[in-house]
Amino acid sequence: VKWSCVKISRTLRNATYKGYICYNKSRVNNFLEKKRIKNLDEDSFMLVRGNFEPIVSEELWDRCKEIRESRIRERNMPDGEMRRLGSNRPKYLWSRKLQCRCGGNFRRFRWRVIQETGVQIFGYECYRRKRNASKAYLEKHGAEAAEVCDAHSIPEWKLELMAKQIFSRIWGDQKEAVLLVCEMLTQCAKIGPTFIELNSGLEQQIKKLEERLTKYTEMRADGELDKEQYAQMSKDTKAKLKQLKAEQQAAMTPEETSEAAAFDLNAVRQALQQMIDLAQPKIADGVVDEFVETITPVQDYSYRWKLCFGTLKPEYHTNLMSMESKPILSFVIPFETAKEFREENKMDVRFRRSQWNDLHIEVYL
Question: Strand, helix or coil at 250?
């Protein structure tokens, strides 16, 4: 079998693997030509559960569909046609958060390499500016350059510096509150029987009922019970046995049982301590990915951050160039703060005041 992207795509779209028969995937144009026309609108497919064993679970197949659809973008073609095209999710954290003032995305590139240590310094630049001719070049040759992006590239360490300053001001002393919640969860976990204890009790009851059915059969064989008594007592016992087995099945699968048993609140506490510990040189990437929605350089050395403490929409960016509300936080990062941050992270000592421009930060919710 020669695998290709087309074959893999067809495999991922095939609902037969989760145990369903799919209808309306194609149609015949008319009875004379009998030309088969594919239906590309997946929303119009009709799925009917089949009487065969599925290869994968419905949850896995639906999760795969969700990932696949999240990587599809609708774009207008030059002829006006709306076409669905694949789109790769940005690989790096700051590429997912940055949005240029021209509307373009940012790409990561290698800024330079420190010769003494071989450490690579990375930065982010607007993809539209990288792909198109520069504004200075167009003006030099007499071309119109009004719509050309002239946003400066951003070193990665400056983004980490801004994140550290923003969360230090907003988060404050919330670390103690989160750790208090962990203590409350620990206390609540000690109250009431665990699933293992409940499951053990159900197994004991089921075992007793099965033994009782065996005794009824022996009593019937010995003539201690007549036919009517045996039928009634067996019927009641089997009904209780069926109910207990249903409760045991609905409680939790074996895989979930092992995962629940492995749940450790101490590990959660340690992870939270590491994530929200503002004394660390840098803010954890997980915190930035969880709460930062959009970052836009509105001007050179002037940035707007949009935070979200609810559910983030994947690959969604708010237009920070036309904000009507006032920022919840506005401050300036001077040279001394940047120098202290570089020293804490043991970065290159070659950092001069003459090369520094203060960063103006605005934070929105």
Answer: helix
Helix-helix angle 195-221:227-251, to 10 degrees: 160
Rounded Cα distance between 232 and 227, Å, is: 9
In the chain, which ranges are continuous DSSP H helix? 5-13, 58-70, 93-97, 127-131, 135-140, 156-171, 174-189, 195-221, 227-251, 254-261, 265-275, 285-291, 335-344
DSSP string, 92-125: SHHHHHBB-TTS-BEEEEEEEE-TTT--EEEEEE
DSSP H or E run through 111: strand 106-113
d(C-alpha 255, C-alpha 36), whole Å? 45
CA–CA separation, 244 and 209 (whole Å): 10
Exposure of 183 in the CB half-sphere (CA atoms within 13 A): 6
First to last CA, the chain: 52
Task: Name the one residue in this structure whose structure tokens are 């979200």.
Answer: 308
Question: What radius of gyration, in Å, describes the C-alpha atoms of the chain?
Answer: 31
- Which amino acid is present at 181? V
Q: Report pLDDT digits (tens) over 178-192.
A: 666 666 666 665 555
Measure the CA–CA gap between 126 and 254, rounded to whole angstroms: 49
Which structure tokens are listed for 208?
Answer: 């007793």
Residue type, 340: E
Q: What is the pTM of this model?
A: 0.59
Paired strand residues for 99: 105
Calpha distance 357→349 (Å, rounded): 17
The CB density around residue 111, as the number of other CB atoms within 10 Å, is 16
Per-residue model confidence as pLDDT tens digits over 69-118: 888 877 777 788 888 777 777 788 899 899 998 888 899 999 888 887 88
Residue with tokens 């790096």: 92
